[in-house]
Every structure is written in structure tokens, then in C-alpha cells.
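Weekly modeling sync, notes
Attendees: AB, CL, MP (scribe)

Item 1: holo prediction request
CL wants a bound-state model with zinc ion before deciding which constructs to order. AB pointed out that an apo prediction alone won't tell us much about the pocket. Agreed to run with the ligand included and paste results into these notes for async review.

Input as submitted:
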Amino acid sequence: MKAAVLPGVDTPLETRDDIEIAPPGPGEVRVKVVASGVCHSDLSVQNGTIPLPTPIVLGHEGAGIVEEIGDGVTKVAVGDHVVLSFVPACGECYTCTNGQPFLCEKSRAQAAGGLLDGTTRLTSNGAPLHQMACLGTYGPYAIVPEISVVKIPDDVPLDIAALIGCGVLTGVGAALNTANIRPGGTVAVIGCGGVGLNVIQGARIAGATTIIAVDMLPSKLEMAKEFGATHTVNAGDGDPVAGVMAASEGRGADVTFEVIGLGPTIEQAINMARPGGEVVLVGVPRLDVMMNLNAAFTFLYLAKTIKGCWYGSSDVNADVPKLLDLWRSGELKLKELISKEIDVDHINEAFADMQAGTVARSVIVHTHD
Ligand code: APR
Ligand code: ZN
Ligand code: ZN
């Protein structure tokens, strides 16, 4: 099959057509990947922010149709439509059974760039190819753990279902699960990309009535308004902390979200939370950035809570159906997140668009022969 491969850190992706895919092993399923979002975390693997072994098939935000099941698979059957979860959730380990399936102990295997047993089902020219997040949705077919799929109704278009797999679960989950947003509350969101727009619509659904969007690009701030922002602050026009203070009666927001993954914007998120407020870290920074934050003082004296947010604190098996209900009722925008649909040959252009900020999401629609 043909798929987009990242050969190494800081190199362009290349589409290779010599990729062999092994059959699913026990507890694994073969998925015909119909669509894959292009997320900033894919770019973060390319530039080394998220360290993963290479060569690797990127892509962790996808949806498709189950084509074949391995021994012992009971969760899905051939023909089922599924959203792919970028964190496997076994439902049996300590964290899964204690309300934190987004930290499933089985997901530790993901750092090695293979499936749960550490090996990959892909080879290119005879050499092993890694799979991002036990998935690898930049290829038209993927062998994935059954605990990484969530069945959805057949009538949900698979391009929008793909976005649920990362951006929507992460962003909406950050607002609905990770944070404590009270109805009538004030929220600030720094970074209005594919994930940040979902934080904004999640905050609206949670009942926040003042939603302050911060970005450098006027086009993103316009999109933010469509997703529920009541105020916008252009970070290119001056200190965004002052902008958020001005929009929150000088107090700061009850809850702030950093949805980029940069040191200065994490510090801004801490500083624009009101005393006693909550700061939710969604963006994934380089490891050294996390080590060198310069805002420790305010944690204690101003009693601020800092929360790390992984996968929107989601329980994918419960939350995917909930998100689809919100979408059906018109409360959750999904189609509106898709700026461009592309084929896999245009993946490097999609990365350039993401860096330039000209898209909310590009979505790869795979062809299958
Ligand atoms: N100040 C304000 N906004 C900024 C700044 C800045 N200094 N730098 C970048 N931005 C904005 C961009 O203009 C863009 O709108 O942040 C947004 C980032 O959006 P995307 O590139 O679409 O990233 P996204 O896919 O939303 O991911 C955001 O979440 O899951 C993580 O790894 C992912 O860390 C990444 C983050
Ligand atoms: Zn992602
Ligand atoms: Zn588990």
C-alpha cells in the first residue's frame, strides 16, 4: 500500500508505495482508514517536540471501517464504522478502572512506536515501519489494537468522525472533563487552531458566558467567534494578558487554557487566570520547556490550580457517543473544522498550511484500490 512516511526528525514526509501490512494479530483489527486529520502533534513528531522512533507512519486522528479481526476480538465486527482513539483504553487496568482511561497503562507501549506488544505490522522495503499512537492514519489501512477503536453509527460521515479522534475529544474534553467551568463563568483560550476551537465550543457547551479567544492570526480569531468566543485578543497587538484582564473586569479568567505548547504562552495562561482560578495545559511543549516555567510564585500565593490535560481527560467509549449526540443536536460543530480535504500526496503542503495558520484542519481522504 501507499502511505506517508516520516523518514527521520526534521525531514519532509515521503509517500512510499512499497509498504507491506501484516494481518491482524490476536486482539487486533485491520481498519480501512477512510479519513485522517492533520494535527499539530504530527508536526511535533516531525520536528522532534514529541520524540518517537522513525521511520514512522504518522497520523493519530482517524476514522474508518473494520475489514478484518484477529483472534479473540469481541469489541467490533467486520464492517463496523469506527473512530480511532489515539490512546488505547483496556478497561481493566488500575487507571482505566479508576476513572482515568486516558492514562490506560497499556498506552505506555506507544512510546516505542509499535502496537501493544512493541512490534509493528508495517514494513517498507523489508524494514520495519513504526506506527504513531498504535495507529498510523496517514496510511489507507492500519492494524490497530481493538482497544483503540470505538464503534460509531454508519450514518456519521467518516471525515468528520476522524476529527473526533484527537482534536474534538481533546479540546471539548479539556473544557467538559478536565476543567471545572461553571455556568456563567469566564474562560480564556490561547491558541485557536484545530484543538483550541474545540476548547472554545466545549466552554460554550459547559455554559461559560465570557469566552476570550487569544491568537496571533485575525482569521483564527474570526473562526473562534463562530465557535463561541465572545471576545478576541490579538496576541500580535500587545500583551495578551492585559487584553484578557480588560475583558474580565480586571480579574482574570476563572479558567484559562493553553492550546499551543510554548513556554511564553503557558506563562501567559498562568498569569491571565484570576486568583483562585484554574489553568489547563493542553498544548504539548518540548520537554525542556516544561522544566523551565517561570511562574511558580503564583501557584501558591494566588492559589491557582494548574492541570495537565491529556486527551481531554476522556473516556473514549463513553465520550464519543456523547459528542455525536451533541453534534446531532447542533451544539457541536464538526464539519466547520475542516478547511481542506487533501490526498496523502499533499501532506507536506498540509504541514506548511498548518504552520502558516491558514487552516483549522486539513483532512486526508484516502483512496483504496
Ligand atoms: N500566541 C497566540 N497564538 C499563537 C501563538 C502565540 N505566540 N503561536 C501560535 N499561535 C496559534 C496559531 O496561530 C494557531 O492558530 O496557535 C494555534 C495552533 O493551532 P494548530 O497549529 O492548528 O495546532 P492544534 O492542532 O490545534 O494543536 C495545538 O495541542 O494537541 C496539542 O500537540 C498539539 O501542542 C499542540 C496543540
Ligand atoms: Zn492530535
Ligand atoms: Zn487500561
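Recorded for review: The chain has two domains: 3-155+334-365, 171-310.
Action items: CL to compare against the apo run; MP to circulate these notes.
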